[in-house]
Amino acid sequence: MEAALALMGRGRWDSTAYTECCLHLLTDGVLRLGRLGHSWEQLILAGGLQPLWPTAMTVLGKASVLERKPAGLAELYGVLRRYVSAVPDPQIPESVLELAGSKGSSKARVGAAAFVAAAAQEEGRA
Description:
Helix content: over 70%
Radius of gyration: 14 Å
Strand content: under 5%
């Protein structure tokens, strides 16, 4: 985390490379979304929300279309829901909106719906 913050602070954070790495790990089934959410929350609390947000939306978008939703997806939605109000234009991926609007009661669907509702609530205040 400290290395990520240092790179962000120096303007050397490579969002594209980090996003590609996360997507590769997600595709391989080895990205632990619960741990990722904890790490991301620490980065966000330390001031890394803006550079991290595009990666977060890309990962959520990809995870939301997987036939078998990865463990920890609902928790990741919960972490990001707490901070969506601080993002001026959160750019929610279509797959997240679709998961949120789908039928069912899976944790991932409920988490997506709460995340989308929080984003919409903030959009309504703007």
